[in-house]
Structures are given as structure tokens and as C-alpha cells.
Amino acid sequence: MTDPAPDPDPRSATRLALITGMSGAGNSTAIRALEDMGFEAIDNLPLPFLKRLFPADAPPDADARPVALGIDVRTRGFTAQAFLDRLATLRAAPGVAPRLVFLDCADEVLIDRFKTTRRRHPLAPLEGAAVGIAREREALQALREHADLVIDTTDLSPHELKARLAGLFDRAARLRGLAVCVQSFSFKRGAPREADTVFDCRFLRNPHWDPQLRPADGRDAQVARFVRDDPLYADFMDRVAELTLMLLPAYEREGKAYLTLAFGCSGGRHRSVVAAEDLTRRLRAAGWSAALRHRELDDQKTT
């Protein structure tokens, strides 16, 4: 099943986004992504609370923020039929305009993700992930068939999933048509597989060798000043920004939906971070919707 065309103005048309799907397919990532776009987000909401959030007799509130709800097999009172019954009521209510997003993923990739995170599957805590995945797939089949959007995350990184959702739900991203992600990384861990273009920042002076700057990262003002004071930095950034701004409209005309630009350095904490921050600011100032990710710094937060 392919993704249908998004709403002309999803932020105004979609008052309610319902996120469901296979455990491990990225449901929590999707909820956080929608929250970043301005949705009020609630994960693992008990089904009975849906009626309280959207009572049938409540008049539409044009000024209310859109809502993103995560509902899956962990949810209290969850069955596919109960969920579909609630969904039918919401679709009949004026001004709600719910969209059901189902996240799917290949079984073998889900198994690997459960092994990596060392988490137990909610439907088979004592029997192994494969058993739980089979049970869940059978239990959710009806939801998948009734979903407005089915997104397969088998080959998507978390930030690519966020870009996909931005393209579907974020008005600014839809107006531009091309979802751009800029990220920093460390060459020690290898370049991101999803990167379309990689810039090597290791020719710049390295703040790592300054004991006062080493503990900070490229978002620190002193570190950023140190990197920008390199005689080659300004010309490098000007040329990268000029090239990028020349290519983005061409990629857009060719129908490219997602573009990832990556800056690398030795540790992924200083030079590449400054460059990614600066390019993102330039792209946004030029009117492009650009997401920003610092792989090594973001991953450090989750460890």
C-alpha cells in the first residue's frame, strides 16, 4: 500500500493523528516528530479516553492545536475492533478529521531491534520477540487495512521517518515539497547510510586539542567561534551553502522527497556540529524546511 496524497494543508485539516502499528516500528519516534511539528502529543492513551478528548457533541475549535495520539497493543482496553469502533465515531464527528497512520516493518528487522534494545515484546514477554511479532501482526491486520497511511520503516532511520511525517503533516514542509535534514557525525562510526551528500570537516582546526574547549560541543559559543575563526571556514561554508541552495530546487523539480546532508569530523562533537548548525540556519533563512540532527550528541543522550 502506498501513501496517499497528503491534505492540502495538513496542519489545519488534520485535527487528530492516530499513530499505531507494530511494536518496534517507530511509533514513539512518530509521536515525538509530530510533537515537534506543533501537535499536542500523548503516547499510549487508553481507548476510553478518546471519547473524553473528542466528545461527539463538542463544537469544532478552529484555534485548537492538532493532537497526535499513540495507541497500540500496550494500550489499556485495546483490541483492533474497539479501536476501529472509536475511529468510526471520530470520522463521523464534525471538525475532527482523524488520520490513522500505521507503521509497519519487516519481521527480521523488528527482531533485530528487540535484540538491540534488549526489550521484551509486549505480547510475548516470556516467549521471544518472533512469537510476539506474529501475534501482533495477526491482531493488527484489520487496523492496517483501514489505515489512511501505511509507512514501512524497514529501511528508514529515525530521522528519515521524521522527514516522511513532516512531508505528510507539516505545512511548511509540504509547501516546499522537499524535506531536508542536516546532520553531524563522527567518521569513527562511519558516515550515515542515509546521507545523500557528505562534507568532511577534518581539515579545520580541531577544538579537541584545546583543554578548555574539549568538554563542550559545537553548540557552545566559544567552540563555534574557534571553528569559524579558521581561515578556511568562511569560504568553505559559503561554497557549501551556495551549492546546496542551487541544487535544492533542482532536486525538488525532479520529485525528490527527502535529502540528507551530513558533515563529519573525527569525533562528531565540534567542527561538524558547527558546520551543520550554520548550514541549517542558512537554509531556513532561505525559506527551506530543514531538520537538524547531531548524531553523536543525540545518541549520547539515549545511552
From TrEMBL:
List, for all copies, the residue spans of the domain called RapZ C-terminal. 179-297
Q: Which residues does the annotation say bind GTP?
A: D72, V73, R74, T75
Q: Which UniProt keywords apply?
A: ATP-binding, GTP-binding, Nucleotide-binding
Question: Which parts of the chain are coiled coil?
Answer: none
Q: Where is the RapZ-like N-terminal domain?
A: 16-167
Report a single Gene Ontology molecular function.
GTP binding
Protein name listed in UniProt: UPF0042 nucleotide-binding protein
